[in-house]
Design brief:
alpha+beta, FAD/NAD(P)-binding domain, single chain, 8-stranded mixed β-sheet, 19 strands, binds flavin-adenine dinucleotide
C-alpha cells in the first residue's frame, strides 16, 4: 500500500464513504479511507435510517429532498442497491405547534416535497386503525421511507473502489499532522500516511482530532434506544413511519413482521454506554404504541439496540473546512438525523476538498464558526432531532 494519497478520509461511516464516492465521481481517485473497525461500525450501523423531508430550514429541506431522491434511486448514483422502502411518513405534533407544522409543510412544498397537512379527522378517515387523540394537526409525506444503512455505506464505498479509491479497515488513526496551516499526513497504528487533504468523518470520535489541531468544537453524546417488536401481521401487514414530537418517539416497519421504535435521548459516555435496550424503555414504547395504534396490543418485544447521537448546540451538523487549516474538511455533529442527508453531505465534503467551498448547495449556514458567532440554526420544534 502506498504511503501517500491526494486525500485521506478518516472514518468509514456513511459520511466518510459518501465523501469517498463523490470524490471519485469528481475524478479524485488517489484516495484512501481509513476505518479502525469495519464500515458502518459506528452510529451508521445502529441507525433507524428514516428518510423524511420535514425540516424547519431551507438548507435541510433541500438536502433531505435531494438525498432522498439519490437513495431511492441509488443504483443510478452508485450501481448498487440501497434497500429503499417507500412507506410514507406521518409527522404528528403537539398542541401549540400547529403553526410551525403548517409553515414547515409549506416550506417543503416550496422545494418540491409532497407534504400534505391533515386534521386529525381527515387522518382518521385515511388511517382508521391509528388513534390521533391529542394530535392537533399532522403532515404526511407519501414519498418518504427508509433504507439499509449497511447497503448505502457499502454502496458508496464500492462505487469509489470501482473507480480506484482504497479502503483500509482495522486501522486506527491516532493523529493529524499539521504543518504551516496545512494537513500533511495522518498518523496511524500502522504508520504515517502522507495526505494532500484530509476529510474528518470519525463520528463521535471527532472532538479529540479537532482539539489536537487547535480548533475545538462543542459536541456531546446521547444514547438513543431502538426497540424491536414483532407485530401481528394479520392485523398490521405494514404501516407508515410515524413520528411524534410530544415524546420524541418515531417508529417504522422493517422486514417481515418487525417494527422498530426509536425512543429516548439520554446523556451518556461515548466509550462505555450500554449498547442494548432497557426493559423499562421497551415497556414504555409498547405502552405508547398500543395507545397510538391499538392493534399493537398483540405485538411481542424482541430486544433491540442503542446507539449514539453526536449533538451540536443547535442540533445541526458542521460541514466545513476547519478554521485555520486550509485542507482539513470536517463533517461532524449530525445530531441523530444525518443518515438521510448523507448523499448531499458527501458531495459537499468532496466539493470542499476539490474547490474549497460547497458549490451544489451553499453550506454556509452549517459553517464551523456559527457557534462562536452566536448565529445558530433555529428549529420550529426546539433544538431536537426533529430539527
Ligand atoms: C440509534 C440511532 C438511530 C438513528 N436514526 C436515524 C434516522 O432514522 N435517520 C437519520 O437520518 N439518521 C439517524 N441516525 C443518525 C445517523 O445514523 C448518523 O447521523 C450517521 O450515521 C452519522 O454517520 P457518520 O459517518 O458521521 O458517523 P459514524 O457512523 O459513527 O462513523 C464514524 C466512523 O469513524 C470510525 N472512527 C472513529 N475514530 C476513528 C479513528 N481514530 N480511526 C479510524 N476510524 C475511526 C468509527 O469506527 C466509525 O465507523 C440515527 C443514529 C442512531 C445512533
Amino acid at each position: 500500500m502506498p504511503d501517500s494519497y491526494d486525500v485521506v478520509v478518516i472514518g468509514g461511516g456513511v459520511m466518510g464513504c459518501a465523501a469517498l464516492h463523490y470524490l471519485a465521481k469528481m475524478g479524485v481517485t488517489n484516495t484512501l479511507l481509513l476505518e479502525r473497525d469495519t464500515l458502518a461500525a459506528g452510529s451508521t450501523g445502529r441507525s433507524m435510517t428514516i428518510l423524511r423531508m420535514h425540516y424547519s430550514n431551507a438548507i435541510t429541506t433541500i438536502m433531505a429532498k435531494e438525498s432522498r431522491d439519490v437513495i431511492a434511486d441509488f443504483e443510478s448514483e452508485t450501481g448498487h442497491p440501497s434497500g429503499f422502502v417507500n412507506t410514507g411518513y406521518v409527522f404528528m405534533v403537539e398542541e401549540g405547534q400547529e403553526d410551525a407544522l403548517r409553515t414547515n409543510s409549506a416550506l417543503q412544498r416550496e422545494y418540491g416535497v409532497d407534504s400534505q397537512v391533515f386534521t386529525p379527522e381527515e387522518a382518521s378517515s385515511r388511517w382508521p386503525e391509528i388513534n390521533f387523540e391529542g394530535v392537533p394537526v399532522l403532515a404526511f409525506e407519501p414519498n418518504s421511507g427508509y433504507a439499509d444503512s449497511s447497503a448505502v455505506t457499502n454502496g458508496f464505498a464500492l462505487s469509489a473502489r470501482e473507480r480506484g479509491a482504497k479502503v483500509q479497515l482495522e486501522t486506527n488513526v491516532t493523529g493529524i499532522v499539521v504543518e504551516h496551516g496545512r494537513a500533511v499526513a495522518v498518523e496511524t497504528d500502522r504508520g504515517r500516511i502522507n495526505a494532500g487533504a484530509v476529510v474528518l468523518t470519525a463520528g463521535p470520535w471527532i472532538p479529540e482530532f479537532l482539539k489536537s489541531v487547535g480548533a475545538p468544537l462543542d459536541l456531546s453524546w446521547v444514547r438513543h434506544q431502538v426497540v424491536k417488536l414483532h407485530r401481528p401481521l394479520n392485523k398490521i401487514p405494514t404501516h407508515p413511519i410515524i413520528a411524534d414530537t410530544s415524546n420524541g418517539i418515531s417508529f417504522r416497519p422493517d422486514a417481515g413482521d418487525l417494527t422498530l421504535i426509536g425512543i429516548r435521548e439520554d446523556p451518556t459516555d461515548r466509550d462505555t454506554y450500554n449498547q442494548s435496550v432497557d426493559s423499562s424503555t421497551a415497556a414504555d414504547s409498547l405502552e405508547y404504541l398500543v395507545m397510538r395504534y391499538p392493534a399493537f396490543d398483540e405485538a411481542g418485544w424482541d430486544g433491540g439496540w442503542s446507539g449514539l447521537f453526536t449533538i451540536t448546540p443547535d442540533h445541526h451538523p458542521v460541514i466545513d473546512l476547519v478554521p485555520g487549516i486550509e485542507n482539513l474538511v470536517v463533517g461532524a455533529g449530525f445530531s441523530g438525523h444525518g443518515f438521510k442527508l448523507s448523499p448531499t453531505i458527501g458531495r459537499a465534503l468532496a466539493e470542499l476538498v476539490t474547490q474549497g467551498r460547497s458549490t451544489s448547495i451553499d453550506m454556509s449556514p452549517l459553517r464551523f464558526t456559527r457557534f462562536a458567532e452566536n448565529d445558530l440554526l433555529g428549529s420550529a420544534y426546539g433544538a431536537s432531532v426533529f430539527a
